[in-house]
Amino acid sequence: MVAMSASRTVRLDPRSPLVLDTRELGRRPGSMRRARRTVPAPADWALELVRVPEGADVELDLRLEAVMEGVLVTGTADAPVAAECGRCLEPVTERLCVDVQELFGYEQAPDDPEAPILDGDLLDLTGLLRDAVVLALPLNPVCADDCAGLCPGCGGKLADLGADHSHDTLDPRWAALGGVAPDRPTMES
Ligand SMILES: [Zn+2]
Ligand SMILES: [Zn+2]
Question: How many independent structural domains does the chain possess?
Fold first, then answer.
């Protein structure tokens, strides 16, 4: 029980691009500020086949609103996404725009020790943005909806090989996969 979350004691760096200073906002409920900035993408916005390239421009368009308990942040993050097609491994680029919303408390709520809080006037967008972006990354990126993928025989891209492409000897491992799975027995009472 001694080891409380260590990150709570780390002071935020006001020069970090993902740290916002709310001093100008004040703490009177209802006051509002818009924060628009371009920040470099951190290194960990990535899944196996898809990522926001580290250092890429991420456009933040955020609204900061003082409420009774803290500062409510809502808005969008717009970022480029680089992926490999899950079928043919060709590079795929697209953009991602995610909605974000988080309440940063002035004080730690006793019933929610993990809730994000302000550090003085500073708030850290790192976790909020990472969660929103990584959750929105496509799990199965494809270069085109009808991408035919790679030839299982030679690994060539089927779109480039032509419709009459075939191999005389079918690898038995692939032949086995081509079979239709038998129906599973069903439990009936
Ligand atoms: Zn493809
Ligand atoms: Zn082939």
Answer: 1
- Output the CA 92–ligand 2 centroid distance in Å: 23
137 C-alpha to ligand 1 centroid (Å):
17
Is 111 contained in some domain? yes
Cα 89 from chain centre: 20
Q: Which residues of 62-91 are buried (b: 16+ CB within 10 A; e: fewer)?
A: bebbbeeebbebebebebbbbbbbbbbeee
Q: What is the C-alpha separation between 77 and 137, in angstroms, rounded? A: 13
Residue 31 lies in a domain: yes
CA–CA separation, 91 and 125 (whole Å): 29
- Measured in Å, residue 147 CA sits from the centre of ligand 2 at 15
How much is the mean pLDDT over the chain? Answer: 88
In a domain, residue 178? The reply is no
Which pTM does this prediction carry? 0.77
Q: Which domain holds residue 73?
A: 6-136
Q: Which pLDDT score is estimated for 10?
A: 67
Q: What spacing in Å lies between the alpha carbon of 163 and ligand 2's midpoint? A: 11
Structural domain includes residue 179: no
